[in-house]
Amino acid sequence: MHTKTIVELYKGLKNKDFSCVELTKHYLSRINQSRLNAFITITDELALIQAQVADDKIALGNASILTGIPYAHKDIFCTKGVKTSAGSKMLDTFIAPYDATVSQKLNQVNLVMLGKTNMDEFAMGSSNENSFYNAVKNPWNYSKIPGGSSGGSAASVAGGLSCFATGTDTGGSIRQPASLCGITGLKPTYGRISRYGIIAYASSFDQAGVMTKTSQDAAIVLNVMAGFDEKDSTSAEQKVPDYTTNLNISLQGLTIGLPKEFFLSDLDNKVANNIMFAIKEFESMGATVREVSLPNSVYAIPTYYIIASCECSSNLSRLDGVRYGYRSKESKNLEDLYLNSRSEGFGEEVKRRIMIGTYALSTGYYDAYYLKAQKVRHLISNDFKKVFEKVDVIMGPVSPTTAFDLGSVKDPVSMYLADIYTLSVNLAGLPGMSIPVGFVQDLPVGLQLIGNYWSESKLLNIAHQFQLQTDWHLRVPEEC
Ligand code: GLN
User: Fold this and answer.
1) Catalytic residue among 150, 173, 235, 434
2) Ligand 1 probe mutation, 74, 88, 201, most atoms within 8 A of CB
3) pTM above 0.85?
4) DSSP labels for 52-99?
5) Which residues form the Amidase domain (predicted)?
6) Confidence class of residue 480 from pLDDT cuts 50, 70 and 90?
7) Is CB count within 10 Å lower at the N or C end of the chain?
8) 191: helix, coil or strand?
9) Which residue in 201, 194, 438 sits closest to 319, CA to CA?
């Protein structure tokens, strides 16, 4: 049951091959036996109540395609009455008093929430090793990282612990773990999904999305998550199409752009071979390929890490032990209380970024760092604009290597370098996707698809057509 897609589970539930309660119990027992550490909280009681509600709906003939599908929710989305930690000691005892808009929408269609997934603290990281709740393991090889920050979500889908999962992507956190765990991940255009009730990291980048087994499943879930929300002033008043209706358009005549900056020496040769093999497959399906250039994307890492750190230093200031978050027991006076609460509550990487951001925003440095970075951000967006006048979609790697060893990255900058191909997409606010296209030894490789603004339908169509021709997305790790 746990290798089935949403579409397959829907059929199984409808034909009464299994009940939703049975399905949910099956997943919960897998989660309880798992050594992946993919979950921070397992909501077993709630899940079984939701499963019974779903079974009742199915019995009455009122079910939709998502009724009773068990999923895993990244622990960055507020869930009413359920712990919402963002992977931090700061929020270890925080029970959200309200639902994020995404949580509310997922509840409305009678999904079954199995639990909240592990993640890098406040979504800062690319390996899931920055979590207060310890690292997550990659289901393909337990000595490797699953990617981050949505590492728990990716591992839960790849490891057969949930049918699909939610994620957020500020600089690659859906696409990179999806790539390293061999699943399908979609980060929509900035503003497509409401950020209300998502614990903020860097507000001008943060965007929710989906992590699934197939592109078709991603379309089904995006249909529910997308849309304007008056509670989020940056959510777009853009019509939501039915993402499942345009999946069968032929790729004949599609123009693919390959940015030459994405195929330089930092890309592992074997990963590159897999990417080029996938591109050939697209050519055999009628697409044409041309080289393009994103000259300013080479500045994406410093640009992103300056702006994201500035935004996080502001967003996380509310976590001071007074207004929100962990409170130190040891303090003698008010200043001590702030200092100790923040020193003890935040992990190393989060503190590093708060300090970088505070420094870059301070008088005298603001122009040199923050303002300059915003200007480069504009140049990066313009590069994409020019390229999309000539091509329908951009393709390239998601990550320069396959999943690396747990504990192998010793300094923060080498971790930042792992984000080289994903960050420019967030700087421009564009939609991006990762789909499995091969393996290097036992580890999956993902192909990145980057579309123009609001072209989620097109990306899903391209990915779906590829998945009709190939079976990389159907591979599962041994223990599944
Ligand atoms: N690795 C990037 C960071 O640490 C992106 C994380 C994310 O997308 N949340 O900022």
Assistant:
1) 173
2) 201
3) yes
4) HHHHHHHHTT---TTTT-EEEEETTB-BTTBB--TT-GGGTT-B-SS-
5) 22-460
6) confident
7) C
8) coil
9) 201
Q: Which residues pair with 273 in a beta bridge?
A: none
Taking residues 148-168, report their average pLDDT.
98
State the pLDDT at residue 479.
Answer: 74
Place of tokens 């068990």: 70
CB atoms within 10 A of CB 83: 17
Mean of pLDDT over the chain: 97
Which residues have any ligand 1 atom within 6 Å of their CB? 123-126, 149, 169-173, 201, 308, 419
- pLDDT of 347 above 90: yes
Locate all alpha helices (DSSP H) within 285-422, ordered by sequence: 300-315, 334-345, 348-361, 372-387, 412-417
Whose C-alpha lies nearest to ligand 1, atom 2? 171
Q: Tens digit of pLDDT for each residue in 107-144? A: 999 999 999 999 999 999 999 999 999 999 999 999 99
Residue 456, pLDDT score = 98
Locate the ligand 1 atom nearest the alpha carbon of residue 169 and give its number.
8
State yes or no: is 260 an active-site residue.
Answer: no
| Centroid of ligand 1 to alpha carbon of 455 (angstroms) | 23
pLDDT 10s digits, 252-305? 999 999 999 999 989 999 999 999 999 999 999 999 999 999 999 999 999 999
Helix axes 456-469, 269-284, angle to 10 degrees: 90
Q: Exactly one of 85, 103, 149, 297 is catalytic; name it.
A: 149
What are the two backbone dihedrals, phi and then psi, of residue 59, each rounded to the nearest 5 degrees?
A: -60, -35
Q: Render pLDDT for 430-462 as a digit per residue (tens, 0 to 9).
A: 999 999 999 999 999 999 999 999 999 999 999
Token pair 């599908």: residue:
69
* C-alpha of residue 187 to centroid of ligand 1, in Å: 13
Rounded CA gap, 372 and 303, in Å? 8
Query: Domains of the chain: which residue ranges?
Result: 1-480
The answer to whether residue 57 is catalytic is no
